[in-house]
Amino acid sequence: MKKLVIAAVALCGATLASASDNALWEKSTLNEILNRGELQVCAEAGYMPFDMRDKSGNIVGFDVDIAKSMAKAMGVKIDIRNTAWDGIIPALLTAKCDIIISGMTITPERNLKVNFTDPYIVVGQTILLSPKLQGKVNSYRDLNDAKYTIATKLGATSDYAVKRYMSKAKLNLFETESEAALEVVNGNADAFVYDLPYNAIYAAQSKGKVLHLDESFTFEPLGFAIRKGDPDFMNFLNNYLAQIKGDGTYDKIYQKWFEGDAWLSTIQ
């Protein structure tokens, strides 16, 4: 009798575990994507070379190619949904997309709202400087002065970096990084602070209108963001990242957008 009771308890436990596993699978975003046949990605076009618009109006870039590779691995179509930065996390949380792949830095504040994958690239903040300050400003420390005006993008990690490291300077915030960088070119700001990849490309295109202080003064890992409580999707994403970094796919995409410049002529 005792053995029968133990067997019944074990069977019940197995049944409950199976039901729990099935419930998790049914709730999984990965399962929804496979059933839908489409991966829906939130991204904000305007962050070179991660997410931009080409001359035909299509969103292209490093993030987009990674997302396309991901969709191909899933065997589904892809829908890149252009989303304003200040609303991109709310869009994810209200299921307007499955994932954010948009050069998003992993921070504790954001991590309270969303879960992040392992980092897929690490960048840092650098400075685009007015040529008139050449020799006078050599690092971010020199800009920590009330006589200087710094421009950057509202809500980006550069916003918080300026407030932390250059708190004495006047800070002007803009909706897009391109608007903020243009302030330096037009003489309305002394410096623009933003991520290294964007600044390196902008400086190369500016033909001497800005100087690039290219030593990063922050450490910023970027990750894909997903809704909380979805270990199934997270498992797939981290394994996917490990796979493309091991089989050469990641290197090929990286070289195209960060080491080559053929794409510059195709951008708006």
UniProtKB/TrEMBL annotation:
**Protein transport recorded as keyword:** no
Q: Which residues form the signal peptide?
A: 1-19
Query: May I have one GO cellular component term?
Result: cell envelope
Q: PROSITE patterns in the record, alphabetically? A: SBP_BACTERIAL_3 (PS01039)
Enumerate the UniProt keywords alphabetically: Signal
| Pfam families according to UniProt | SBP_bac_3
Instruction: List each copy of the Solute-binding protein family 3/N-terminal domain by range.
Output: 38-261
Q: Where in the cell is it found?
A: Cell envelope
One molecular function GO term is: ligand-gated monoatomic ion channel activity
- Residue runs in coiled coils: none
Q: Which residues form the Ionotropic glutamate receptor C-terminal domain?
A: 38-260
PANTHER family listed in its UniProt record: GLUTAMINE-BINDING PERIPLASMIC PROTEIN (PTHR35936:SF38), MEMBRANE-BOUND LYTIC MUREIN TRANSGLYCOSYLASE F (PTHR35936)
Q: Which family does it belong to?
A: Belongs to the bacterial solute-binding protein 3 family.
- Put simply, this protein is called Transporter substrate-binding domain-containing protein
The species this protein was found in = Marinomonas arctica
